[in-house]
Automatic annotation (TrEMBL):
High-level lineage: Eukaryota, Fungi, Dikarya, Ascomycota, Pezizomycotina
One GO CC annotation: mitochondrion
GO molecular function: alcohol dehydrogenase (NAD+) activity; metal ion binding
Organism this protein belongs to: Ascochyta lentis
Matches recorded under Pfam families: ADH_Fe_C, Fe-ADH
Protein name, UniProt field: Alcohol dehydrogenase iron-type/glycerol dehydrogenase GldA domain-containing protein
Length: 416
């Protein structure tokens, strides 16, 4: 780990990997300008910024001022869940201005968009057909590398979310026409530098921040509850997922009480990288993520999908992974701030299962707990969601593999 001037801390996000680097402690404009000049030597920068952050903060203005005439163009606003049509349009714009660096300012959807844009540009993609010819996990292309080229344009991600998308090389993109979410793999690559900004994090409204944090908790919990432990890397993944819970869960409770608590927000963001280690080590998720990938494009926020689905998922799986769930329960009970919440809600350590604990935690954060609360009420929507879920690779890596719509419906009915 190295400490730079202006209190910047810059370190490897993952011990055994040179990239991504993780930087925090100094103003985002200072960090970005320093790395653009000293590391990337970039002269044509394309900035993709969140519409809400652009409207409600001065972050974009400060970044543009710091970078000066190195900024080739700025694009403001992308839809949640990373729509394919928008990605293709912005990708063409990046190509037209001949950008040699992308900086994102916002959440997971913008990070995913930048990843797929850089990957697509490196492989001559011009339209949807070209894009779907790249390796992905929603069709026949299931390989890892294929004949694709890795991105040539590096990405700096100034993250304002707890979803963790910036830490992984995969990129999720939603087809506008049918709502199917494709996860692009192959030589797709994540950002080379991730920037955490204390002053920017506290501008994110508390509800979406907390919901994204629940998503990060979902990453940890589903990893710890898997029955498909890899022969190599499991111990590291398990330790990291536990550390993620220990960082993120109490920080969310503190942020709920005081949204201006910069330390709590930073602790949660630093915990997110731990939540991504299991996926890096090929510890795959289960039903909560599988269903969530398709519930999201139906108009539900990323984090809210986990708020709604986690409890029912673990109650459904309990008959095959009770031991694993019990271990996670012990981790949660051992976190003092979380334990206090359970005690306040009269939960009994001997009888409350993991689903009960997660349900109580989400309710304490005053986040939605049912499909009804997020606007999914019709039988037609549920049946469509059940069918689509079976297309997701995590349906088959759930502790009880999901192979029929009826299995998914059992979980969904418990979420109503």
């Amino acid at each position: 780990m190295t400490t730079q001037p202006a209190q910047e801390v810059c370190e490897q996000a993952f011990q055994d990997y040179a990239e991504p680097l993780l930087s925090y402690g100094a103003p985002l404009s200072v960090i970005c300008s320093r790395h653009v000049t000293n590391r990337y030597h970039s002269s044509r920068i394309y900035i993709i910024a969140s519409q809400s952050l652009t409207k409600n903060t001065t972050a974009l203005e400060e970044l543009q001022t710091a970078l000066g005439d190195k900024v080739a163009k700025v694009h403001i606003g992308l839809s949640q869940h990373t729509l394919m049509s928008e990605c293709l349009a912005v990708m063409a714009d990046i190509r037209n201005v001949q950008a040699n660096l992308i900086i994102t300012l916002g959440g997971g959807s913008i990070s995913d968009a930048a990843k797929i844009m850089a990957y697509a540009l490196a492989n001559g993609v011009t339209d949807k057909s070209d894009l779907l010819s790249l390796p992905h996990v929603m069709g026949s292309k299931l390989g890892l590398g294929g004949n694709t080229m890795p991105p040539a344009i590096p990405i700096i991600a100034v993250t304002t979310s707890l979803s963790g998308a910036e830490y992984i090389p995969f990129a999720g993109v939603t087809d506008d026409e049918d709502g199917i979410k494709y996860q692009f793999t192959g030589n797709c690559k994540g950002p080379s530098l991730i920037v955490i900004s204390d002053e920017l994090s506290v501008t994110v409204p508390v509800k979406p921040w907390l919901a994204a944090g629940v998503r990060a908790i979902d990453h940890c919990v589903e990893a710890l509850c898997t029955l498909l432990r890899p022969a190599k890397g499991w111990e590291e993944a398990e330790e990291a997922a536990i550390m993620g819970l220990q960082c993120i869960a109490p920080s969310l409770l503190k942020t709920k009480k005081d949204p201006s608590d910069e330390k709590a927000r930073r602790t949660a963001q630093l915990g997110v990288r731990h939540s991504m280690v299991p996926l890096k080590n090929r510890v795959f998720k289960g039903a909560s993520h599988a269903i969530g990938h398709f519930l999201g494009p139906m108009g539900v926020g990323h984090g809210e999908t986990s708020c709604v689905l986690m409890t029912a998922t673990h109650k459904y799986n309990f008959k095959v992974n009770a031991k694993e769930q019990s271990a996670v329960c012990n981790v949660l009970w051992d976190i003092p701030e979380v334990c206090s919440v359970f005690r306040a809600h009269n939960l009994d350590k001997a009888s409350a299962d993991l689903g009960d604990l997660l349900d109580t935690f989400v309710r304490e954060l005053e986040l939605p707990r049912s499909l009804t609360e997020v606007g999914i009420t019709s039988q037609k929507e549920l049946e469509l969601l059940a069918r689509h879920t079976l297309k997701d690779p995590y349906a088959k890596t759930n502790p009880i593999p999901l192979r029929t719509p009826e299995q998914v419906m059992e979980i969904l009915i418990a979420c109503i």
